[in-house]
Design goal:
Layout (H helix, E strand, L loop, with lengths): L9 E4 L9 H11 L9 E5 L5 E7 L4 E7 L15 E4 L1 H8 L17
Parallel strand pairs: 1-2
Antiparallel strand pairs: 1-5, 2-3, 3-4
């Protein structure tokens, strides 16, 4: 399934967020904390505190969409060394993240098997 036709910008919010937040709460983080426009078509990636879940927020032609991904046996390798609240990902890094790979080191997350 093709989730996005075109990815203008992909932003990873480094700090964990409360996963009770949905579209409105995440859009507020984008606009107030990151000072970015939530409706420009960019993709915003958020992680929970235990790093086993992702929420991906983006604006489509007709409104917001929110994707949710949960790892069953592993944790996402999340960048913690940067001082920036947000880091920009390439499309390839975004696909690596969704496939269970470390975005920074390009290593497969332990505990996952691919057929």
């Amino acid at each position: 399934m093709l989730m996005f036709q075109q990815l203008p910008s992909i932003y990873l919010h480094r700090e964990p967020v409360d996963f009770r937040k949905s579209i409105n709460g995440l859009a507020i983080i984008v606009e107030q904390q990151l000072s970015l426009e939530a409706t420009d078509g960019s993709v915003f990636v958020f992680c929970n505190k235990s790093r086993d879940k992702l929420k991906i927020l983006y604006w489509g032609n007709t409104g917001f969409a929110l994707w949710y991904k949960r790892l069953e046996q592993a944790k996402f390798k999340w960048p913690t060394q940067s001082e920036d609240e947000c880091m920009r990902l390439s499309e390839q890094e975004f696909h690596w993240l969704l496939s269970g790979f470390d975005v920074l080191g390009h290593r497969q997350v332990k505990g996952l098997s691919y057929s």
